[in-house]
Design goal:
The protein contains 4 helices and 11 strands. The chain has 189 residues and is an alpha+beta fold. Strands 1, 2, 3, 4, 6, 7, 8, 9 and 10 form a 9-stranded antiparallel beta sheet that branches. Strands 5-11 form a two-stranded antiparallel ribbon. The protein is globular and about 40 Å long. It binds fe (ii) ion.
C-alpha cells in the first residue's frame, strides 16, 4: 500500500482514495491492480505481463504506450549504486514514468513548481503514472529491491534531464512502510 508524505507540512496519507485525489492535483495517476490469476512475485516476465494484460492493455490505449517490460533490481544487481545515482537527483523526462510494482518498493519525490515537495512510497500492487515533464527523483528503500512493470511511449524518451536544483539534497530517502523483519524475530527463532 502506497504512502504519500508532505514532509514540510507533516502530512501523511495512507488511504487509497486520499492518495489518488492528492496525486491527481499534480496530474499523477495512482491505481491498485489485482492480477487476473494468482502470480508469484518471481514468476517469469512473460507470465507477469500476462497476469496484468488487461490493465496493461487498457493503460497502453489510454496513454499511447507501445511497449511494456519488467525490470528487476536487487541488492546484488551489478553497478546498482551507479544506476540508482542516475535517478536520485532531481530530473524530468520527455516520457511519462509508468511503474506497476510487483515486488519490493520504491520512493518517488515530486517537486511541483508552486507547492512543497512530496514523497510517494510505492509497493506491490501499486501503479503510478508520473507525467512527462514532472520534476522528480527516485530512490530505492533500504532493502534495495524492486520488480516492476514499465510502460513506454518511446524508450528513448526516458533519458533523465537534470534540473541541478539541489532540492533533492534536503530529503532523506527513507521509506516508512519498510518492515525490518530482524526486529520482529523472537529470541528462539
Ligand atoms: Fe525519472
Amino acid at each position: 500500500m502506497a504512502i504519500v508524505r508532505v514532509p514540510s507540512e507533516d502530512v501523511v496519507l495512507r488511504q487509497p482514495d486520499a492518495i489518488r485525489a492528492f496525486l491527481l492535483r499534480y496530474g499523477i495517476e495512482f491505481e491498485q491492480w489485482v492480477p487476473s490469476q494468482p502470480i508469484a512475485a518471481d514468476a517469469p516476465a512473460d507470465a507477469v505481463l500476462a497476469a496484468y494484460a488487461r490493465e496493461v492493455d487498457a493503460l497502453k490505449a489510454r496513454g499511447g504506450y507501445v511497449t511494456a517490460d519488467v525490470i528487476d533490481v536487487k541488492p546484488e544487481t551489478p553497478n546498482l549504486e551507479a544506476m540508482l545515482a542516475r535517478f536520485s537527483r532531481e530530473h524530468w523526462h520527455d516520457e511519462d514514468e509508468v511503474r506497476f510494482i510487483i515486488e519490493g518498493r520504491g520512493l518517488f519525490h515530486v517537486h511541483p513548481p508552486n507547492d512543497p515537495v512530496f514523497a510517494i512510497e510505492v509497493e506491490a500492487g501499486d501503479l503510478i503514472r508520473v507525467p512527462r515533464g514532472t520534476h522528480h527523483w527516485f530512490d530505492l528503500c533500504a532493502d534495495r529491491r524492486i520488480r516492476a512493470i514499465r510502460l513506454f511511449q518511446d524508450p528513448s524518451g526516458w533519458t533523465p534531464h537534470y534540473t541541478d536544483s539541489g532540492v533533492d539534497q534536503g530529503f532523506q530517502p527513507v521509506c516508512f512502510g519498510l518492515v525490518y523483519v530482524s526486529s520482529e524475530r523472537t529470541p528462539h527463532a
